[in-house]
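Here is my example:
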Amino acid sequence: MFSGLHDIGWSSMEHAYGSAEEVPALLLALRSSDAGERREALGRFYSAVHHQGDVYPCTTASLPFLFELADDVTTPDRSDIVELLVSIGSQALDRCDGQYGANEQHVEAVAATRSRAETLIRLACDPDVRVRRAAIPGLGSFIDDADRASAVLRGRLPAEPSIVEQLLIVEAMATLALRLPERAETQAMAWFTELAADSTTAPQTRLAAVVQRARCAPERIDDGTIATAINLLRELEDAAVPAEAWCDPPRPAGPTASEDGAPPQVVAAFEDLERHRQIHSPITDLLHTFHWTLAARVPQRTALLAEQLRSRDPGSCLDAIRMSAELMKSWRGDHARLIILVAEHLNAPHNQVAAEAAATLNSCHAIAEPAREALAAQVSVQYATYGPEVWFAPQRHLRRSHQEAVQALARLGDLRVVPSILTALDSGDDAWRAVQVAGTLPQAADQLVPRLCGHLRSLDLTQGLWEMSARSDLSALAALADDSAIDVITETLSTAVPHELWSTACSALEALKAFGPSAAPALQAIRSLITASDAHVRPAAVAALWAVVGDPDEVMQPLLNLLDDSIPFRISAAADVLAEIGPPAQDALPLLRDLLTHSYEWVRVPCATALWEIGGDAEAPAVLDTLLQAWEQNPATANHAVACLDRMGPAARPALPQLRSELLHARRRGRFDSIDNDEELQAISRTLIERLTGY
């Protein structure tokens, strides 16, 4: 075995972390008798040689030896090797078919995988079910003889007792049809139709036939397709598959972020990632495929999700709630019905389902108004049942359910969450979650501000662990705008600077800016930073100085210096302040006009905005041209563009076609493609269209 392994110039190749000279040892370790050594070698192979799906020359050079391992029945953990092989080939194939093009090693990797067609067919018929499970997807991607591949797949279906393998076979047939449409599509579509109508076939497999047929011909999807899928979902209620029949054994857990002393916010983010990697039903991936195929058909997807959410199986409900979140966060449309359906799960008997429902409403808070009363009822019931300690309940799903519901309701500005927020701030348990939403409750500032100040003072800012928490405290205090917080914000700034905690210093300066003239006691600290060495602190200090003093003469020269800088974010920051100053900033007009030709749209847009605020109607043509071109080039600038258009009055009328065009997009857009920015973008666009057509 491995003939010629050491004849390859591995040391002349590289992987993700440098020289590939270790690859022969990794390949040898993959057949070690020691399970720990095999596991470590496989992990290293994925992290270095197949890093995040990348395919390097050393990855391609490894394929013949990996195929040797996979084809040898004495190799331990063969399914892992087969899974690795199919992953390498699939990632290379994606690059060959993708918009970014492929390198030589991608083409070679695909060719090498396709040259082993007979091996893949043998592996797809292997006695070991996990080997078959890993190999079957390769039949659709790497067998060039469409008739042979189709025959193997059709023959395997009745031979497979497991639902998972049956679903993979149907999926592989669709992949084959999409890859070789002239030779495989007709027979694949006929087979899907036959399967979908066969009442003796398991409903999961019939659903797969419906979905994969839709995937191959999305233009043929109609209401009947959705109705058939919904009826099959109802049949599934009486055909549940136990987890042990479809779920792979859990892999050993790696080190958690908390073990590395990471901030609690980072730990929580990793926990969320881990949750979203979990699936709770053998048809979850299939339903993901269906939703991906349906794409912008929001009413049809909502109807499908409504049925998914009615499932009596808690795991299926969990997956359906997450798919609902994906739809609402990615696509525009009327999501009120879906919000209400998700909210119905807030009082689910399974706390994990309730927690996922609350988390979805929290992440979709911008459109969660229809769920307000359901959220309030849930928070109230939990508080009454478990007492204030429910915020830090030892049952992790109950705790998460309450915290997410509190955050969602707080983001709707609802004061009924204040008792839970106060409990969090007083106890310190998961206080950072309460801090995140405290700024949305200005009516309770008298209770929140003293606690936020105390929380901020309690943080040891010399420990990087707490820097994110400090910035959250500062943001909340700025939003609440209670003058009693100015002293602690100034103290935080004075602590951050000598320790070079520049991100905290910037947050403190931004908070002081929010207080305007009331922050005059902090002027000495602010003025000392307008010449700071840190690239971010200087513009933040100048912005705070203008907000507090309001004297253009004191800030114009520093702003002109920033405007003439080579760093884009400093130019943009200066332009933002100049826009606030308005006509008294006439001296900046020549530089701002020149910057309208800057190569970066995130410089052009704020400079155009400043140009309008300072120069008015005389600058309108250049401002409009710049805003609309940047918006077209990069939709992420849309929120900034429409904010300026909103202030331009009748001068913005030439933007009407682009405003109307914006509302025709089906996907979420705006800054970060986030749901809140997109909802704001749509609202302002509609208001502007109505106003501009009325002039």
Q: What stands out?
A: The chain has a mean pLDDT of 94. Strands lie at 14-15, 18-19.
